[in-house]
Design a protein that fits this description.
The chain has 30 helices and 2 strands. With 803 residues, it is mainly α. It has a two-stranded antiparallel ribbon with strand order 1-2. Belongs to the SEC15 family.
Length: 803
């Protein structure tokens, strides 16, 4: 109804306006919209409604069209995604093509600019060529001077300056550039002088940095030359070469291979030998010397060179604080010194007057004193024999190298003798540890042998000969323990190690023989002897181990003569030579054996004391048990088993040990009776004690160790026997009457001993006096005891007064 009131031309007008808005440009929309507001009052509202309806229609059409074309849109997006990779590749190719075009363009631009510049230069040259025709020879000569300056041909530059001043400058002296050149020549001379001095400083700094390389090369060449010489001597069967390697160290077949290889290597390296000129460019020195000579200032140059080289010598001779820790520290020290003096020797021979022989000798003597002091100080810190040996080898190569350049090196070889003593000390310390390890690992029992191969393997390492043992069937046992062949092998290894230091010392075979024997004597008398004595004193070493140690020392003592033969084979010096030093192994092993024997006696006595401490006598018993005490029987059984082990010992050792044990047992039993803490002893206790002594005597008479004559062993208990017999038979009248007579039955009974024991029995009698007063025999016995006690006291007092 509302729309019915509209004018008949309103709706078509609005549609026209909408069509015009849709079909015209944005710039023309303004007037069209203005016509909406110019119409009827409600035209705007109606137009907006019409516009909304139109928009809705368009939205529906768009939606229909989108629905219609949606699948096509999705397919298009999919195609685009597929094309994306090819598009990226195309982009990269386009970018790369663009970069190449740009690079090509730059080169074209550069070439174009070069062409332009060349054309300009060509034009300029053409312009000035006529003007320079007159000055061209001067300019060429001056250009030559500049070229010589730029190429550091300063000596030639000085000669060119002389030509310019004498020949060319007078021709063009009217030109201003010629005056500038003339004024510039003194400055150029000063520049040459400064530059040459700067080059000399650079040269000095360079050889200071590379002196170790120079020295290393020189030392290597000296070592190769020495190896070649020694190899040649060995090929010609020179005696010195034979004496340094013997037996199984380098077999003859291997010697031939080594010699052949050495000669082949020498031939291969013959063309590769480098000299100091190959390693160092000496042209700065020569050039500087010539320049200063031309300039008339040669003395200044010589003084400067010598001063700087002396400073460098002091720096080279200053060692690093940790040089003694590794062989590389010593090698670096030696190579720097060798490099320094190789350079000086070269300068001495290729220049005239820059350095003299007197100068180099003075410099070497100063350096040698410093070197010896440094080596003496730093080598004292070396505790590793391998490091000391490497140091010795370095010193020998160092000395041989410089000796080849004419420097005296006798003081260095004298220093080597000091270092040799230190090397021996380090070897002794090292072998002390080796010996200790061998003793710790030994089981101290005879070596069991189960086969002929095993037996041959052992006797090939240790010189053992026993015809009786060889006849025995396998399995069998060698008398020594495992430590014996190991000790013998290590002594030989020590000799080899000591021999290594003697090589290349330019000493005679007699001196080397003396060195080896003295160092071996030190090993035996100090190191091995000390290890043996320390081993013997160790608490865990028992009697069985001590017996085995004595056996071991006996076999080692017998092997000493083979060690002397071993040294003789090395040096070819006969043992019958007057000044040949003998090995002190006999005394060393005898001392160790005596110490072991003494320790056996001590430990055996200690074991006896342990058994005696188990004694538990009832000193107040009235009657004896009728059998010996248990502790004593155990002790006797122990002694029997121990003395069976002693059968492997030398006869006198076993007899001494047996006699010492019996005497100690007798003394211990006597001390037990006379103990001050023991106050009372009954006759029953004396009788029981007598049974124990009888067992001791039976043991002594059973000859536990063969070799005793008669009743020698029983005499160890004679004091106890006479004392106990005196108390058992109560024969005091005979004792007192015969006292002091050589034929006395109780000659071994001391009055003090008898008095002490009798007083202990007297106290027991007094204790039992209540019962004894009813028995007449006991009363008489008590009176007799008191009478004897008085007589003994009188005898003792008389002896004291007489004394």
């Amino acid at each position: 109804m509302a729309e019915s009131g509209e004018g008949p031309g309103t709706v078509p007008e609005h549609e026209r306006i909408l069509q015009e808005i849709q079909s015209t440009d944005t710039a023309c929309v303004g007037p069209t919209l203005r016509s909406v507001y110019d119409d009827q009052p409600n035209a705007h509202k109606k137009f907006m409604e019409k516009l909304d309806a139109c928009i809705r229609n368009h939205d529906k059409e768009i939606e229909k069209m989108c629905n219609f074309h949606h699948q096509g849109f999705v397919d298009a997006i999919t195609e685009l995604l597929k094309v994306r990779t090819d598009a990226e590749k195309l982009k990269v190719q386009v970018t790369d093509t663009n970069r190449r075009f740009q690079d090509a363009g730059k080169e074209v631009i550069v070439q174009t600019e070069d062409i332009i510049r060349c054309r300009i230069q060509q034009r300029n040259i053409t312009t000035v060529v006529e003007k320079l025709q007159l000055c061209l020879p001067v300019l060429e000569m001056y250009s030559k001077l500049k070229e010589q300056m730029s190429t550091k041909r300063y000596y030639s530059a000085l000669k060119t300056m002389e030509q310019l001043e004498n020949v060319y400058f007078p021709r063009v002296s009217q030109y201003r550039f010629c005056q500038l050149m003339i004024e510039n020549l003194p400055k150029l001379r000063e520049d040459i002088k400064e530059i040459s001095m700067s080059d000399l400083k650079d040269f000095l700094e360079s050889i200071r940095k590379h002196s170790d390389k120079i020295g290393e090369t020189a030392m290597k060449q000296a070592q190769q030359q020495k190896i070649f010489t020694v190899t040649l001597q060995k090929r010609n069967n020179v005696k010195f070469g034979k004496t340094m390697y013997i037996n199984d160290r380098i077999p003859e077949e291997r010697n031939e291979v080594v010699l052949k290889h050495a000669f082949e290597e020498e031939d291969e390296n013959e063309e590769e030998v480098l000299t100091v000129q190959d390693l160092v460019d000496f042209s700065p020195v020569y050039q500087c010397l010539h320049i200063y000579s031309v300039l008339g200032d040669e003395e200044t140059f010589e003084n400067y060179y010598r001063k700087q080289r002396k400073k460098q010598a002091r720096l080279v001779l200053q060692p690093q604080s940790n040089m003694h820790e590794t062989v590389d520290g010593y090698r670096r020290y030696f190579t720097q010194i060798v490099g320094f003096f190789v350079v000086e020797d070269h300068i001495l021979h290729v220049t005239q007057g820059l350095v003299t022989r007197a100068y180099t000798d003075e410099l070497w003597n100063m350096a040698l004193s410093k070197i010896i002091a440094v080596l003496r100080a730093h080598s004292s810190y070396c505790t590793d024999p391998d490091l000391v040996l490497e140091l010795k080898n370095l010193i020998v190569i160092f000395a041989d190298t410089l000796q080849g350049y004419g420097f005296p090196v006798n003081r260095l070889f004298d220093l080597l003798f000091e270092i040799r003593d230190q090397y021996n000390e380090t070897l002794l310390k090292k072998w002390a540890g080796v010996f200790r390890d061998i003793f710790e690992e030994d089981n101290y029992s005879p070596i069991p042998i189960v086969s002929e191969e095993e037996y041959r393997a052992i006797i090939s390492k240790f010189p053992f000969q026993d015809p009786d043992l060889e006849k025995q069937p396998f399995p069998k046992k060698l008398p020594m323990s495992q430590s014996v062949p190991h000790i013998y092998i290590q002594v030989k290894e020590f000799i080899y190690a000591s021999l290594k230091f003697s090589e290349s010392l330019h000493r005679s075979s007699t001196e080397i023989d003396d060195m080896l024997r003295k160092s071996t004597n030190l090993l035996l008398t100090r190191t091995l002897s000390s290890c043996l004595l320390n081993l013997i004193k160790k608490p865990h070493i028992g009697l069985t181990e001590l017996v085995q140690i004595i056996i071991n020392t006996t076999h080692l003592e017998q092997a000493c003569k083979y060690l002397e033969d071993f040294i003789t084979n090395i040096t070819n010096i006969s043992q019958e030579t007057v000044h040949t030093t003998r090995l002190y192994g006999l005394s060393t092993f005898k001392d160790a054996r005596h110490a072991a024997e003494g320790e056996i006696y001590t430990k055996l006595n200690q074991k006896i004391d342990e058994f005696v401490q188990l004694a538990d006598y009832d000193w107040t018993m009235s009657e004896p048990d009728g059998r010996a005490s248990g502790y004593l029987m155990d002790l006797i059984n122990f002694l029997r088993s121990i003395f069976q082990v002693f059968t492997h010992l030398p006869g006198k050792v076993a007899q001494t040990a047996c006699m010492s044990a019996c005497q100690h047992l007798s003394t211990s039993l006597m001390q037990m009776l006379l103990d001050s803490e023991l106050k009372q002893i009954s006759m029953g206790a004396v009788q029981q004690f007598n049974l124990d002594v009888i067992q001791c005597e039976l043991f002594a008479s059973s000859e536990p160790v063969p070799g005793f004559q008669g009743d020698t062993l029983q005499l160890a208990f004679i004091d106890l026997r006479q004392l106990l017999d005196l108390f058992m038979v109560w024969d005091w009248s005979t004792y007192l009457a015969d006292y002091g007579q050589p034929a006395s039955k109780y000659l071994r009974v001391n009055p003090n001993t008898a008095l002490t024991l009798l007083e202990k029995m007297k106290d027991t009698s007094k204790k039992n006096n209540i019962f004894a007063q009813f028995r007449k025999n006991d009363r008489d016995k008590q009176k007799l005891i008191e009478t004897v006690v008085k007589q003994l006291r009188s005898l003792v007092n008389g002896m004291s007064q007489h004394t």
